[in-house]
Amino acid sequence: MPPVDYDVVIIGAGPAGSTTARFAATAGLKVLLVDKRQELGAPIQCSGAISRHALEQVGITPDEEFIHEAIYGFAIYDETGNRAVHDYRSLKPEEYGSEAGKRPLGYVVDRRRFDRYLMTQAERAGAEVWLKTEGLGYTPQADGLCTVRLLRYNQEITLRTRVVVGADGLQSQVGRWAGLQTHIKITELAGCLQFIVDGVETEGLLEIVTGHEWAPGGYAWVFPKGHGYAEIGLGVIATMTDQPARWHLDKFMTQSFFRDRFANSRILEVQGGGVPLAAPLRTQFADNLILVGDAARHVNPITGGGLHTAVAGGKIAADFLSGHLADQLPLQAGALEAYQRLWLSELGDKMWKLYGIKTDIFHNMNIPERNRQLYLTMADYFSPTSEFKKI
Amino acid sequence: MSKQQPVLFHIGWNACINCGACVAICPQEAGFVSPFDTIAVDRPCDIACLLCEQICPVDTITHERVGIPVASNGVNGQ
Ligand SMILES: Cc1cc2nc3c(=O)[nH]c(=O)nc-3n(C[C@H](O)[C@H](O)[C@H](O)COP(=O)(O)OP(=O)(O)OC[C@H]3O[C@@H](n4cnc5c(N)ncnc54)[C@H](O)[C@@H]3O)c2cc1C
Ligand code: SF4
Predict the structure, then answer these.
(1) Could you tell me the pTM of the whole model?
(2) For labelling alongside A218, which of A155, A206, A235, A284 has CA 20 to 30 A away?
C-alpha cells in the first residue's frame, strides 16, 4: 500500500462522525475528524432526546456534562388532547425511577455539550480533531486511495487517505461530491421550529402531540429541558400547509388544548432545522467514500429521531472500516457496498419498514382517518410492547 | 430539469436560523451553499424549483428572476 496521511478522514464531528472516529481510533486506525464549526452542536438544531439504551449500546456513559434532564416515558396526544401515557415509573416500578438503584429510560441532552463530549471521547481514543476545518471535496486516485481537500482557518490542505466518511449532517455535501443522489423530497423533509421556554411544567415524559390541525405532516412536542425549562416545538411538511413552521408553532401555543398551560411561557431560545422523514439513501457509498448519520438519511422516519441511529451507525461504519482496511480489501468499484449491506442488516431494514408504515399513513388523504392512524401508530410505537422499541 | 428562468435568492438573515433545511432540499450539485449553512445567494440558480422557499421554517427566502442563464454547471439545460 502506498503511504497515506490518515487511514480515515471523517467530515463532520456530530454524533455520527465522533462515534465513527472513536471506534475507528480504538481499533487502531489513524483517524482525522474535521468540523467546520467553532463550537460543536451550535446553533442547536435538535431536541436532544435519546434513550439510555442507545447510549449504552455504543459505550457512552450518561454524564452530567451533557444531560439536561432524565426521561421516564412518553405521553402521546390526539388532536383534541386525549392522551395515552407510557410512564415506565408505573409500568416497571422496580426498574425505572429517580430513586437510588433505579434508572431513567432516556435523557434530553444538550447538543452543544453532547457533541463536545463525544468529540473528546474520540480524541482520547486517539483520533486527531481539527475544528474550523471545512471539507471541500475529494478525488479518488488511480492507486486505489484518494485525496481530500480541506480548508482550515483559510488555508487549503490536501491529504491522502484511504477512506472519506461523510458525517456532515442534513445539509450533506460529501455525498454530492461523489455524485450521489442526496436531496430529499419536499414531501419528506419536515421543517421544524422549537422554543426553549420558561414557565411550562413538565413531568419527566416526552410529550408528542399528533393531529393535522397542529402539525400537518408531522407532530408537535413538549420536552423537559432541565432547570425547570421546557421545549415546545413542531415539524410540518411544506406540501401539506401554506404556512411556515413558525406560524404553526404560534398557533399551537396560542390556540391548542395546551394554550392555558403555555399562557405564561417565556421564550429563552429559538432553534430549528429540517428532519428527513424519509427512507435511508439508496446508495450510501462511492469510491473511497461512505456516508453515516443524517448525511445518509439514517433518521427514524416515524419519530424523526436521528441520534440513536447516528451513534449506532457510527459504530457500524467504524467496525466495517477497521475490518475492511485491516484485510487490505479494495476501496473502489463498488467494494464499499459491503458497508451498506452491513448497515441494512443491523439497522436499515427496520428503518425501511418504519418508512413503509409512515408512508401508508401520510398517503391517506382522509384527514380524520389519517389523524387517527398517526395517533395510534405513535401510541403503539412508544409502548413497552412495540417491536421498534430499540430504534 | 425544467428550463426555468434563473433566479437569484435573497435570505432575510435576521430571521434565518442557519438550519440548513434549504440545502437539504436543494437539487443542485455540490457547492450551491453559502458560508452560513444556507443555499447560495451570490449566484443565480438555474433550476429555480423554489423548494427551498417552501421548506424554510421561518419563511425567509425570496428570489428575483434574472436574465442570464449560468452555463457553469451541468444541471443547466442550455
Ligand atoms: C428540530 C430538530 C429536533 C430534533 N430532535 C431530535 C431528538 O429529540 N432526538 C433525536 O434522536 N434526534 C433529533 N433530531 C435529529 C438529530 O438532530 C440528527 O439526526 C442528528 O444531529 C444527526 O447527527 P449527525 O452526526 O449525522 O449530523 P449533525 O449533528 O448534523 O453533524 C454534522 C456535523 O458536520 C459538520 N459539517 C457539515 N458540513 C461540513 C463540512 N463540509 N466540513 C466540515 N464539517 C462539516 C457540521 O458542522 C456538524 O457539526 C432533531 C432534528 C431537528 C432538526
Ligand atoms: S431554510 Fe430558512 S432558516 Fe433554514 S438555513 Fe435556509 S434560509 Fe435559513
Answers:
(1) 0.95
(2) A284
Which run of H or E residues covers position A176?
A: helix A174-177
Question: What lines the ligand 1 site, CB under 6 Å?
Answer: A 11-17, 34-37, 40, 45-50, 134-135, 167-170, 173, 192, 194, 272-275, 293-295, 299, 304-308, 310
* A67-109+186-276 under CATH 3.30.2140.20, yes or no: no
Q: Which residues of A touch B1 (CB under 8 A)?
A: none
For residue B68, the distance in angstroms to the closest alpha carbon of chain A comes to 25
Which ligand is nearest the CA of A43, by number?
A: 1
Cα(A273)–Cα(A246) distance, rounded to whole angstroms?
Answer: 11
- The residues facing A99 across adjacent strands are none
Tell me the residue type at A61. T
ipTM for the whole predicted complex goes beyond 0.85: yes
Please give the CATH topology (third level) of the domain spanning A6-43+111-184+278-359.
FAD/NAD(P)-binding domain (3.50.50)
pLDDT tens digits, one per residue of A372-386: 999 999 999 999 888
Q: Which three cell numbers stand for residue A73?
A: 416515558
By C-alpha distance, the chain A residue nearest B30 is A176
Inter-chain contact A45–B27, Cβ cutoff 8 Å? Answer: no
For A339, the grid coordinates are: 458497508
- Render pLDDT for A135-148 as a digit per residue (tens, 0 to 9): 999 999 999 999 99
A190 vs A193: CA distance, rounded Å: 10
Domains assigned to chain B:
1-78 (3.30.70)
Find the residue in A nearest to B20 (Cα). A171
